[in-house]
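A common beginner's mistake is to predict each chain separately and then try to dock the pieces by hand. The better habit, illustrated here, is to supply every component at once so that their relative placement is modeled jointly.
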Amino acid sequence: MAGIPLYAQLINLLAAILLLLAFAMLAQRRVLSLVHLFAAQGVALGVSTAIVAFATHQPHLYASAGLTLLLKVALLPWLLHRLIRRLDVRWDMEGLINVPTTMLIGIVLVVFSFNLAYPIAQLASTVTRATLGIAMASVMLSFLMMITRRKALPQVIGFLAMENGLFFAATSATYGMPMVVELGIALDVLVGMLILGVFFFQIREQFDSLDLQNFEKLKE
Amino acid sequence: MIEILAVLGFPLAGAAVLAIMGERRHAPDVNVVASLLTFAAAVALTVRVIAGGSLLALERQFFVDSFNVFLVALTAFVGFTTSIFSRPYMRVEQRNGRLTAGRLKLYHSMYQLFNFTMLLALLTNNMGILWVALEGATLATVLLISLYRTPASLEAAWKYFILCGVGIAQALFGTILLYFAAEKVLGGGGGALLWTQLDDVKGQLEPTVLSIAFVFLLVGYGTKVGLVPLHNWLPDAHAEGPTPVSAVLSGLLLNVALYAVVRCKVLVEGSLHTPFARDLMIGFGLLSVVVAALLLSRQKDVKRLFAYSSIEHMGIITFAFGMGGPIANFAALLHMTVHSLTKSAIFFTVGHAAQASGTQIMDEIRGLVSSSPALGWGLMLGTLAILGMPPFGVFASEFLILITAIGDRPWAAAFFLAALGLAFAAVFSKVQPMVFGEPTGARLEVRPAMVPVFIHLAIVLMLGLWIPPFLAEWYRQAARLIG
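With all components supplied together, the output reads:
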């Protein structure tokens, strides 16, 4: 690995951790552990953003690293914890597809993402260009998680994890979006989470469960 | 500049006031007043742009040109007329016990917030803020769709949130890729996502990146446009939410999402010099028209019927923008206007008709002309207009699109024409007995708000016969801009 500066190696390491965590989420059936994995992803994301900020001397990236840590490591997991406790949903049932199959599909998706990202990464001037494929792969894996889960809460965690992947794409490939945009995105995610929190209680009131299998009425 | 701030400020202030004051007797009136002020500000902005041409404001963060100014005016106008319609409509809903005071407060506040996000999406010059505004619109409408808290409405709202959430995440990825390409030409920082800046340098943007970005952007924003096969949320959301919300979803949200696609298409087209973006849009558009036309005949719920009709019409517009060129673009812009006006007018009448008969099932709504003539005729005329009967404006735009298609892509024209015929047969055969059949005797307990319906239909009729010169000039300028 000679020739690659230390910070780039660190970012590549964190990118690999991010991908690993995405796979772990795909396999995890306990809702509480899903939240922990999501928080761990937040840590990896925040640290990698801070490293990019340090390496490229972009002060606004420090702010966005701080925002990431605050939102994705503290606030959102805390909200999710509260929801889980109050709704008392600890286990998710087996997904629509069993775990080994899901993992295999996940590997195919990773290969696909790397192929798709390859021509773009070739053009990148940033030192962290190799991470674009990983970012795309974690978006795809979260997407897979959303489709294969039946319960509402894991779907939402999948949604948030997808946002993590997108954020990582933004920082690793382009050194972060303009600050206004980042703030707007953070606001949308937070408000969305709050709305969903309210929403869960309504769903449960109506259906006595958060199992989306009850959602079969509307067709066509 | 002051006009732009007013256009955005009134709905935002309206949302805050309505949230604070709660559900008083005058809340619906405050809602109307806020919408009226927004519309007045939009008119002032329009006059300003007619006089002085396109303008950039507030450190280039806002941009108004001939393409978005008429959409701003249209959005504010439909937002205003829908707020008038919603007064008697929501009163009946409350009387029927479907809504509590707290929900009405939420409804009014979110209605204004939704209008704010629509106008922000149209006025912003920043592709990132455009994304943020459309995501904000999703969040506001999720709450509006689930307003009745029935199992079906919760399911519709959930489906809407998940599908549009995933869709819009794809659009964010597209936006990131766009920024990635722009950053190399324009340098980092805020400038690289400004549409005007991107438009200036679009020839130098990296084509590979932009073509991948466009796929993500089209799929992402296309979910919100309701393009097949990403349309699943649309009929549910239209059928299960309150009718004023169906009217603004069809009349405003779909247009604004399509506006986002077209803005992106201009950039991609400029970079690529291949028909890649066009072909994608033609494919998605044509597929939507055909599939929606096929599904129309299977509908039983009247709001679902017209929701599928919205998918069909958004398909038509996407198809036309895909073909491009001065005539097809002109027709697409005209179609955006007339579809928005006609479809919201139809939802107004359909909403009252469903209230009078106590159901949305078409087989149980009968003989509107004898029970309430204004409602019956409103629905009949609206249906004829949306099906493209002359002399309404929809006929003019569909005719222009068909003419271009015959010259440009004859094979597509055949599908297009067949789908239009199919849609006509399906919708007309369902609406005809609703209007002229044996009446069921049910009557509406309040005076329906028919003024907005007939104003909308009158404008659509006028656009079919005569387009005001300034409007025609805008359409032409915008058509040239889109290319």
